[in-house]
Amino acid sequence: MPPNSVIIVGGSIAGLLQGLQLKRQGSDVIILEQDPSKERHSHESGIQIGPSRARAYERPSHHDMSNWGCLFNLLRANFDGMASLAVPDPPGPKPGDGKVEYRSGKRVTGLVDDREKERVHVHFFDITTGEKGSLGADLVIGADGIHSTVRGLLGAKTRKEYAGYVAWRGAVPEHLVSKEAVDALSDRLNFFFLGKTYIVSYIIPTEQGNIAPGKRLVNWLWYYTVPDNSPEMRDIFTDVHGKTHPNTVSQGLVQPEIWAELKSRFLPQMLAPLAEVIDATPRPFVTKVCEAQCSRASFYEGRVVLVGDAFTALRSHLGMASEQAATHCAQMDRVWRGEVSQVQRDREATLYAGKFLLLNRLVGVFGLEMPWAVVRTVVAYLWLMIMIRLGLS
């Protein structure tokens, strides 16, 4: 049976998918999100709509590309009725839905397990007012991303590492580039290999869900090798105000001279449509590519569960982050239905993570022409498959 009360830490895609599913099953759900803003910053990023997310929406299984902000607004509309330009008239609750709240600006500081009452208490404070609070629930879900606070509070053993390269990212409104460039990049994923660096591009809707030709966005990701702790790394992650960022330099904060120098080196090597799109990008941003893998998926006899990037953060090459989050939804649904135990579900999540962590890594090191890393990753993947087949993993 689904739990009566749930607290979800993290209000992005993974948290909203879990929250919406539990709401529909009658659970009362409170989401605690650290970001105080009502509208989350998506950077106009692309996102893959794969089979697991299609099942979450009870729609036919297929692959397509969307906009992170658009998907976020769609989920918020269905979770707590938040209106947006994407969903100006959100649907009301359905019969049997649980009560829900989405509380922004709440930073979690502690977890206390009450084993006798089989409840977990979550301590937090409001980052705007400083006011402290505490809530209790039958289940706590940690959906707070690669730098998970919940995972840290649990002291969960986690392997976390920088992949050795960064991802420059951006999106350009179609009307800012030529029709020829848009036509050349439409209706497919495009891969461009430039020798130890590569770029992926595809068309996505706007945050408002506009899919009309001429209104859409041309989205791209550029994987670029940067040694950790190098002068180049320091320069890239120092913003226009001189502040050094640990993981991401957001839109509008990238130093123009850093971006201009990178373009001057590589634009002459690119095909004309891609070069035009990248040159026309108004506000690129850059983030370190990392992966993280936690040794456990649940704690306190299943009363705390890690999902999405909080459990395993995959490299971004196959666009699997939200697909993994939706897979975790399907897995937890089977637990509520009594089809599998929490232990069995955790094993499924661990095997899924191990498989796709290696596949994403393989795509990255292949595209960046790292031959020894390719060999090591292929061997590791084959070994994992053998162990799974023998029932030893």
TrEMBL record:
Gene3D superfamilies: 3.30.9.60, FAD/NAD(P)-binding domain (3.50.50.60). This is 2,6-dihydroxypyridine 3-monooxygenase substrate binding domain-containing protein. The chain crosses the membrane at residues 370-392. It comes from the Eukaryota. The keyword Hydrolase does not apply. Residues 162-289 form the 2,6-dihydroxypyridine 3-monooxygenase substrate binding domain. Keywords: Membrane, Transmembrane, Transmembrane helix. It holds the Pfam family FAD_binding-like. It comes from Cytospora schulzeri. Signal peptide: none annotated. The keyword Repeat does not apply.
